[in-house]
Design goal:
Blueprint: H1 13-23, H2 32-59, H3 67-76, H4 83-108, H5 114-135, H6 146-156
Helix pairs in contact: 1-2, 2-3, 3-4
Length: about 160
Amino acid sequence: MPPMEKDDISLPKATVQKLISEIIDDDLSFNKDAREIIIKAGIEFLMILSSMSSEMAENDAKKTIAPEHVLTALKELEFDSFIPFLEQALTEFKGTQKFRERRDSKFKNSGLTEEQLLRQQEELFKKSRSRLHQNAPLPTSGEASIDETESTEHAKQEPLE
């Protein structure tokens, strides 16, 4: 894949606008040109930080840029004041990752095959539909019920591999 031209790179305008809106006072506005300058500055900052982080990884004879490389690069670029905030954000992120891993391993360690888990899920859906139909009016003549439609659609689906 050929490298992107610098002009092809951008940040999501809506996200940048939301960040700006959260920071500035409600009685101030931010015009489009000012937002574009912030986007361009953000891109430039990210490119410099990425380049410096890459150098830090190379200095450690690593092929993957790790968080410590980014933090070292920030220090080299004299953005030391960012580091405590980013270390806290990294700690929080790692905490959410551990939660996800525990949740994923719960299914892996259940001792059930994927097919068995899918059957259990189908059974739960079936019970839910049953409860839903107990509270819903019956279909008029000529209309297929949800169960009939879903079972026909389900039969058309190919089995999971």
